[in-house]
Automatic annotation (TrEMBL):
Transmembrane segments: none annotated. The keyword Plastid does not apply. PANTHER family: ARABINOSE-BINDING PROTEIN-RELATED (PTHR43649), POLYGALACTURONAN_RHAMNOGALACTURONAN-BINDING PROTEIN YTCQ (PTHR43649:SF33). It holds the Pfam family SBP_bac_1. It is found in: Periplasm. One of its GO terms (cellular component) is periplasmic space. Keywords: Cell membrane, Lipoprotein, Membrane, Palmitate, Signal. This is Carbohydrate ABC transporter substrate-binding protein, CUT1 family. InterPro entries: Bact_solute-bd_prot1 (IPR050490), SBP (IPR006059). The keyword Hydrolase does not apply. Its main location: periplasm. Belongs to the bacterial solute-binding protein 1 family. It comes from Arenibacter palladensis.
Amino acid sequence: MLKTITLKGIAWDHPRGYEPLKATSAAFAKIHPEVNIEWDIRSLKEFGDMPIENLIEVYDLITIDHPYMGQANANNLLLPLDKLIPRHSLEKLKAESVGPSYQSYYYNGNLYALAVDAAALIAAYREDLILKLGLNIPKTRAELLDFYKIIPSSYMVAWPLCATDLWCTFLTLCAQDGGRDFIKDKIIENRLGIQVLDELKIHLEYLHHDSINWNPIQILSRMAEDNEIIYSPFLFGYTNYSRSGYAKNLVKFGNSPTNPNIEVSTILGGVGLAISAHCEHRDLAAAYVNYVAKAETQEGIYTKNGGQPGNLEAWQSDANNRLCNNFFANTMDTMNKAYVRPQHMGWNKFQEQGAELLHNGLVKDIPSDTIMKKLNQLYQSI
């Protein structure tokens, strides 16, 4: 009789976050009957903000955001996967990356996670209502400002601008206007930041008044359930809402508005699957991580069970695009040109506190130059 080995994992609290991992764990157990993988979940905010140190002694498998790589490297929190997974497998996965997803988990010569989920800020819209109103989806930020003015008064545009998502949008607009290197020596270019904050204050005048408190799931749920919000230009997309039968109304997704003068789309998101440095059964854990990330799994069981895959073959799959009403094909350009956040030690602490600082500044309508001064002082202090 086989002795059962239990691996514990921590996912995040949305069907996209945990259902595909539960499904792949069951499938992996058929190949490795000695292994049982158990999953706990944490909130989306905890996924972005909770220090890895709080997880590595309890969990073998950790879903992770790529800006944690510097912290993981400095404190030896995660196992380097390039030491555990065959090189030919990693080379194949690198070639099958959706945009910079694979490379975003690489830091200081080590690969600390595999991109099992790929995402960036994209646009969401109710195609049925857009067509009924005879509107065109904005392709640039200038067109977006015009778009607000031609929408009938019974319809609204919304952005998720709770602190966490405001931070992602702020960095997106900075990268769109200043290029990928707008952060240098732990300073966000001051004039650029002021310009972006001033623009965000203009957008707020036109948006649904609850935008300042909403996250993407809240907006997508509203779009799917009633007819008030017809468009959201910048949010992390969820293929679930573009699948027929998931909700009352279908939400479609496309590329976000951009600055046509600079070849940057929006901020990269997504989820990496990593292994705790405390994992005792590292070879089996690595085999599972590799199994989840490979094209066959991603294109099949992972996507079919509500996942948003990180493998290019899954994104290019005709079957997956039919399943998700062309979610993947319609947002691929955004993924290919996505901006990758810094990964250095301390970034996550700055990200969490900086997001609150920005949010407080917009809510209280603090002058943009004052917000930027405080933001860069905070960055320098961490």
